Amino acid sequence: MSEKISKIGVLTSGGDAPGMNAAIRAVVRSCSYHGIECSGIFRGYEGLIDGDFEALNARSVKNIINRGGTFLKSARSAAFRTTEGRQRAYDNLKAQNIDALVVIGGDGTFTGAAVFNDEHNFPVVGIPGTIDNDITGTDYTIGYDTALNTVVEAIDKIRDTANSHNRLFLVEVMGRDAGDIALNAGIGAGAEEILIPEEEMGRDRLVDSLKRSKKSGKTSSIIVVAEGDKIGKNIFELAEYIEENLEGYEVKVTVLGHIQRGGSPSCYDRVLASRLGVGAIDALRDGKRNIMVGIEHSKIVFVPFKDAIKGTNQINKELIRVADITSV
Ligand code: F6P
Questions:
Q1: Using CA atoms, how far apart are residues 253 and 272, in angstroms rounded to an integer?
Q2: 215 and 257 share a domain?
Q3: Per the CB 3.0–4.6 Å rule, which of 154, 156, 178, 224 could disulfide with 134?
Q4: Contact 256, 173 (CB under 8 A)
Q5: pLDDT for 89-120, tens place per residue?
Q6: Which domain holds residue 238?
Q7: Is the same domain home to 108 and 186?
Q8: Is-contact 144 160, C-beta < 8 A?
Q9: In the structure, which protein residues have their CB atom closer than 6 angstroms to any atom of ligand 1?
Q10: 162 found inside a domain
């Protein structure tokens, strides 16, 4: 039988993602529902180390389900990577009588949580919040759906101008190591080619394919490039290469950047965040520790941190085929 949880701390860490506020709200209200005290920790692990805590109740999280970003703020903490930093974090949690921690973030956040748990045997539960969708053990991460919609909306607008001028656009989207945003938004926006870190296309094959499309009657093109794709040194160099090797197109580059991280969360992200927030408190009450709450085939699942951060998230080959077929 596990120890009773009377008070928890909640924080958001790493890159922010739309829907993080909805997840905090669900955690806080779930605590309120079950008679558990809840403390908000500002600036992720930085605030944990600095003792930046504030008591939260059900009313503290009113009117935030629709807001992008995270009202608890976020950070990528260098100090939490040190044993001294983690010791200070532990001392602060003990001084506040906090029994368990809920961390909302991605890969780096869970890696820190797992090390912290190993060192101090302190109960931690994670909620996947990142636009990258690069966490193993959950079909979706909070913020991914909203980011996809932001990208598709932006590319729809680029398509109008690309088509009016017979231009080829390279559109860079986020995803250092994962091509999920590029692949899904690329299919949704009808991109001609999609370049992702998981598949090496090669510049010559890309140019050959563009030549074939031009011959088949295409007068403008959109290529979606994931930030982490290795095809060229960078997207601007790739644009120059294409312009030199493909006649008849002016090539333009748009880097969507941090616009993808902002905005009001989609309904899907709000519901996902609410379910995962409730699931995190259920997990702690149930004695689960050192796990991430995820969603697989629409069901809540609990995945050990070590499996969630394994980096084995595979790209869906069927989607690659769909992209190939629908862009002929
Ligand atoms: O992990 C989320 C993410 O948005 C990545 O897609 C991107 O590579 C990175 O964060 C950017 O981080 P920062 O906002 O710290 O520059």
A1: 33
A2: yes
A3: 178
A4: yes
A5: 999 999 999 999 999 999 999 999 999 999 99
A6: 145-261
A7: no
A8: no
A9: 15, 106, 130-132, 174-176, 227, 261
A10: yes
